[in-house]
Design a protein that fits this description.
This protein has 258 residues and is an alpha/beta fold. It contains eight helices and seven strands, in the order βαβαβαβαβαβαααβ. Helix 3 runs parallel beside helix 4 (106-128) and helix 4 (106-128) packs parallel to helix 5.
Length: 258
């Protein structure tokens, strides 16, 4: 396992699924971790038995500016410096296309998946690499700085069955790549990670038909686990500072579409 004992991480959407698995993997590798979600009880359960000196909980909606600011402020207050590893994971799905998805959920999904993610990216960038900061120069720093953005295969390959959700992930793709180009000269790595089908509570919350989606998972299975995604995040952020794994798709081996 990689040693991340010098890293300070922030993980949003950490109460379940991919976010919880990533937070666990980073903690197990030695990182100090700020976990965020709206479900206080789930975060408390995650923190139980862990070293309180390496864990900080921030309860709240990751799309709220005050919640995002609190994550960074509490990390700096507790550990004496800014977070250097931020995982932009909080998001929500929505079954259906432009013509038949639930119109009442559009605004909230865009708020969470796009504008909320954009504010977290903005804050992470400005905290890690303040405007006007020079690049790393000829001698690279020992400590890398990472922003890992959880996208989706639906944001790279258009699906008529989840096109409204997919549109928000297309937007996240653009935000991540634009920020990568902006921050690369200053030595900050912005990585887009686009998973295909991962078994979690995501599908149920998004409103996918259990029978139809279950048949699809059986056809392409075994599908990915949340631990598969967490292991990949650990690999990405463990690279030396001059190495950047920046645009990654991960699929179950038998998933041909999308």
């Amino acid at each position: 396992m990689s040693d991340l004992s010098e890293r300070i991480a922030i993980v949003t959407g950490a109460s379940a699924g991919i976010g919880e698995a990533i937070a666990t993997a980073l903690y197990d590798a030695g990182a100090r971790v700020v976990v965020n979600a709206r479900r206080h009880d789930r975060l408390d359960a995650w923190a139980e038995g862990k070293d309180a000196k390496r864990v900080e909980i921030v309860v709240g909606d990751a799309a709220e500016h005050s919640t995002v600011d609190a994550m960074f402020d509490q990390a700096r207050a507790k550990w004496g410096r800014e977070a250097d590893l931020v995982v932009v994971n909080a998001g929500r799905g929505l079954a259906g296309s432009v013509t038949d998805s639930d119109l009442d959920q559009w605004d909230e999904m865009v708020r969470t998946n796009v504008t909320g993610a954009a504010y977290l990216l903005r804050t992470a960038a400005n905290r890690m690499a303040p405007p006007g900061e020079n690049g790393p120069g000829p001698t690279w720093p020992k400590q890398p700085r990472d922003i890992v953005v959880l996208g989706s295969i639906a944001g790279k390959h258009i699906s008529p069955f989840s096109s409204m959700y997919g549109s928000t992930k297309f937007a996240v793709n653009s935000l991540a790549e634009a920020l990568r180009r902006q921050l690369a000269p200053r030595g900050v790595r912005v990585t887009l990670l686009a998973p295909a089908v991962v078994e979690s509570e995501f599908q149920q919350v998004a409103g996918y038909d259990a029978k139809t989606f279950g048949e699809f998972m059986s056809k392409i299975g075994p599908v990915l686990s949340t631990a598969d995604i967490a292991n990949l995040v650990s690999f990405i952020v463990s690279q030396p500072p001059h190495v950047h794994v920046n645009d990654v798709v991960i699929r179950p081996t038998r998933q041909d579409y999308p």
